[in-house]
Amino acid sequence: MIAHKCPHIQVTIVDMNQERIDAWNSETLPIYEPGLEEVVKACRGKNLFFSTDIDKAIVEADLIFVSVNTPTKKSGVGAGYAADLFYVESCTRRIASVATSSKIVVEKSTVPCRTAQSMRTILEANSRPGLRFDILSNPEFLAEGTAMSDLDKPDRVLIGSLSTPEGRAAQQSLIEVYSNWVPKEKVIGTGLWSSELTKLAANAILAQRISSINALSAICEVTGADVDEVAYACGLDSRIGPKFLKSSVGFGGSCFQKDILNLVYLSESLHLPEVADYWRQVITMNEYQKRRFAQTVVSSMFNTITNKKLAVLGFAFKKDTGDTRETPSATVCRFFRQENAKVSIYDPKVPEKQIFLDLTEPGVQDDSAVVKKQVTVCKSAMEACTGAEGICILTEWDEFKQLDWPAIYESMAKPAMVFDGRGILEADKLREIGFKVFSIGKGVNL
Ligand SMILES: NC(=O)C1=CN([C@@H]2O[C@H](COP(=O)(O)OP(=O)(O)OC[C@H]3O[C@@H](n4cnc5c(N)ncnc54)[C@H](O)[C@@H]3O)[C@@H](O)[C@H]2O)C=CC1
Ligand SMILES: O=C(O)[C@H]1O[C@H](OP(=O)(O)OP(=O)(O)OC[C@H]2O[C@@H](n3ccc(=O)[nH]c3=O)[C@H](O)[C@@H]2O)[C@H](O)[C@@H](O)[C@@H]1O
C-alpha cells in the first residue's frame, strides 16, 4: 500500500524464504487477498521490489519495518502462551550488525508490551559507534480478506514513540509516510508501551465479542431464541454497535488466539492471575463452541458418524482468504476423523496439499496415509455433497449461498442434513426442499 500510494518512496520487501520471494516475483502470488494482485503488478519493478538480499536492503533503507512472525512459543518458559520473539530478535541483531547509517526501526509485528525496549538495547549494544536507532511501534490492524481496503482506509494508524525530541522526530517521519493517503486525524501518536498494548487489547476485545455472542448462541439453542435477532437488537445500541457480533462455529486466524494467549502470559508475568483468567476465558469459550458444533453433528446423526459421508464446505478461517491458520474447520474435521467419518472437503481457495497438512496429526505414525483414506478434497461443492448424509458449512464463502440446493438434496443420502456453522443459509427454504437444518444459535430442532 505504501508503494501504491507513494510513488516517490522505494519499498523493498525482504524475506529469508526464497520460495516466498520467488512467488512474490512471479505471476502467482503466495497469498490470496482481494485487490492485492492488481497493486503488486502495478508497482513491482517500479518502486516495489521483492528480494532475499536482506543485508543490502538494510544498508539502503532509512526506515525499516520489522514484520516477521511472532508465533506462540512451543517449548521452554511460557510455552503455549508467550510470543516467540526469536524472529524479531534475529532481525534486530541483523540490523545492528549490518547497518552503516542511522535508521528508524518500526515494530510492525505484534509483540508483547515493552519489546521495543529490548530492541533498543540490542541495537545500541551491537551496532557501529555513532549510529542512532529510533524505535517506533506501529501495530497493524488489517484483517485478512479485507486487507487492501483496511490499509487504504484504516480506522486509525497508531504510532508509538518515546516522548524524547528524537522519538517525536522519528514519529513525524512515519506520520509523513501515512499522510500520503490517510487523513491526519486518523493518525494517532501515543507512547511506545500504550501502542504495543493497544494491539493486544484490540484483538482481545474483538475476540471477546465473538466469544460473547457464541456463549449466547448456546443459550439460544436451548431456549428457542434466535442469535441473529439477539445480535441485531443488541447491536442497535450505539454503545454496542453491530460489528463482530456474528455467531459462528468459532473464531480462527493466526492472531486472535496467539495474541490473547500473549496477553494472558503478560498478565501472569505481572502477577495479575485474575486478569489472566479473565482473558483466558475468551479462548476457552471458543474451544467449547467448536466442540459443541461437532457434537451437535454427531448427536443429530443418531449418535454415530462412523463410516458416514460428511461434506465440509469451507476450510479457510474466514471467507476471501486461503489462510487456514487456526481455522475452526480443521478442529471440526479432526473431531470427525476421530469419530471415523468419511469427510469430503471443498474450499474455493485452499490448496489440497494444505488441507492434508492441516489434518495430519504431527508425530502419529503413518497418519498422512490414514488421513488420505478418511478425507477427500473435492473440486466443487456439488462433488463434496454428492452421496453425503450431512453437510457442514464451516466458512462463510458467498458461493455457498448460491448453490443449487435442490440438486444437492437429490444427490444426497436421506435424511439429508445441513449444519450451518456460519449462519449464512436460509434454513426455511432448505427445509422446504426437504433438508433437516441446524443453524448455530437457532435451536436444535432439525
Ligand atoms: N496476518 C495478519 O493478518 C496480521 C499479522 N500481524 C502480525 O504481523 C506479524 C507477521 O504476520 P504474518 O505476515 O501473518 O506472518 P508470516 O509467518 O506469514 O510471515 C512472516 C515472514 O517473516 C519471515 N522471516 C522470519 N524471520 C525473518 C528474518 N530474520 N529475516 C527475514 N525474514 C524473516 C518469514 O520467512 C515469513 O515469510 C505477526 O507478528 C502478526 O501477529 C498483524 C496484523 C495482521
Ligand atoms: O492481528 C491480526 O492479525 C488481525 O486479527 C483480526 O483479523 P483476522 O484474524 O484477519 O480476521 P477477522 O475478520 O478478525 O476474523 C477472525 C475470525 O473471527 C471470525 N468472526 C469474525 C467476526 C464475527 O462477527 N464472527 C466471527 O466468528 C471469523 O470468521 C474468523 O474466523 C483483526 O480483525 C484485525 O484487526 C487484526 O489486525
Automatic annotation (TrEMBL):
SMART domains: UDPG_MGDP_dh_C. Belongs to the UDP-glucose/GDP-mannose dehydrogenase family. GO terms for cellular component: nucleus. The keyword Iron does not apply. NCBIfam families: NDP-sugDHase (TIGR03026). NAD(+) binds at residues 15, 20, 68-72, 109-110, 144, 255-258, 325. One of its GO terms (biological process) is UDP-glucuronate biosynthetic process. InterPro entries: 6-PGluconate_DH-like_C_sf, NAD(P)-bd_dom_sf, UDP-Glc/GDP-Man, UDP-Glc/GDP-Man_DH_C, UDP-Glc/GDP-Man_DH_C_sf, UDP-Glc/GDP-Man_DH_dimer, UDP-Glc/GDP-Man_DH_N, UDPglc_DH_euk. It catalyses: UDP-alpha-D-glucose + 2 NAD(+) + H2O = UDP-alpha-D-glucuronate + 2 NADH + 3 H(+). It comes from the Eukaryota. Gene3D superfamilies: Cytochrome c1, transmembrane anchor, C-terminal, NAD(P)-binding Rossmann-like Domain. Keywords: NAD, Oxidoreductase. PANTHER family: UDP-GLUCOSE 6-DEHYDROGENASE, UDP-GLUCOSE DEHYDROGENASE/UDP-MANNAC DEHYDROGENASE. Substrate binds at residues 140-144, 199-203, 239, 246-252, 317-318, 422. This is UDP-glucose 6-dehydrogenase. Residues 311-427 form the UDP-glucose/GDP-mannose dehydrogenase C-terminal domain. GO terms for molecular function: NAD binding; UDP-glucose 6-dehydrogenase activity. The keyword Transferase does not apply. The active site is at C255 (nucleophile). Pathway: Nucleotide-sugar biosynthesis; UDP-alpha-D-glucuronate biosynthesis; UDP-alpha-D-glucuronate from UDP-alpha-D-glucose: step 1/1. Its EC number is 1.1.1.22. It holds the Pfam family UDPG_MGDP_dh_C.
